Amino acid sequence: MLYVGLEPASDHVAACLRVGPGAEIVARRKMMVANDVPVRIVTSYFCADLFGDTRLAEPEFMQPSFQSALTALGYTFGHAEENLTARPPTPFERETLELEPSEWIVQVLRASYSTEGTPIHVLETICAANRHIFPIGQVSGCDEF
């Protein structure tokens, strides 16, 4: 884990969570490596007013999943919207992913909403554009991903 705590919402995350830019939100940021090479920064965002005082704001990993934690809090997944962007990295992304000056990143932004339309989870994945794989697996015994 790189970070768990409150931070100001960027414009694109604020739009997904339906809060104002700069509003405090819960962020859970981690880095994924492959053979000791950083390949992905993954950040989950949650509205602080809904989830700031829950286990989603604590540094422990969610077992078995975020979806199960959200369900336990009374939210049922309804739908998600995903946006893909290729762009130059920010200084933080360049340093964290150990990118060369000419390398770009791919940003995947997935906003998940409850059956009532409440924004419940925004997942931002930042990948080095030339070194990423998206493995997807099922949580043991669960029909969710």
UniProtKB/TrEMBL annotation:
InterPro entries: Bact_HTH_transcr_reg, Chorismate_lyase_/UTRA_dom_sf, UTRA. It comes from Nonomuraea guangzhouensis. This is UTRA domain-containing protein. SMART domains: UTRA (SM00866). Residues 3-133 form the UbiC transcription regulator-associated domain. It comes from the Bacteria. It holds the Pfam family UTRA.
